[in-house]
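hey m, so remember when u said the tokens were messed up on ur end? i reran from scratch. heres the input so u can diff it against urs
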Amino acid sequence: VIGGGKVAERKVAMLLESGAHVTVISPAATKTLRELARLKKITFINRTCTRNDITDAALIFTCTDNTRVNKEVKIGAALKGIPVNVADDPQLCDFIVPSIIRKDDIIIALSTSGQLPFVSKQLREKLETLLTDDYLDYVRILSQVRRHVLKTTENKSERERIMKKIARMTVQEIVANGVGPLLKMVKQNRKAVFNHT
């Protein structure tokens, strides 16, 4: 990560969450980045980036407001075949990073192809309000039921039929029933268990 400001901080947080080994190169850094370096969660190189700094990188994020530095990094990375994401400059990006919503087992990625990050942010905020506790319970319950069906029903078409019947149930029905009654229904009579739907 080239740069040590708030944008770099967000990229570092995302990368650490994904299990990446992160090096930050910048003549200045936020308190959070310095603390991460002190805790040895990231490597911090306290100076301006040079082309030699990026030799061993698997992926590069440039988060500076210095166009010259961003272009230098992009050129150096291109020579070594390293993909680069330049914050707020989609023309220089080899890849874009979507806006991510993570709530328990639900992960949603949104993108405007790097053109309108604020629109991605607005959409993310709206979707986050839709992902209520009911949806989180719904996913948790269905995951358990699906695992049970996969484990106990050998016939593939029968498994598909059961899961299609469950999929026709509303979020409210699934949450109201909970795991126990759904598993009981599956066990009792796989052939006619979901006739009510």
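this time it looks ok to me. The chain has a mean pLDDT of 85. if urs says something different then somethings off w ur setup not the seq
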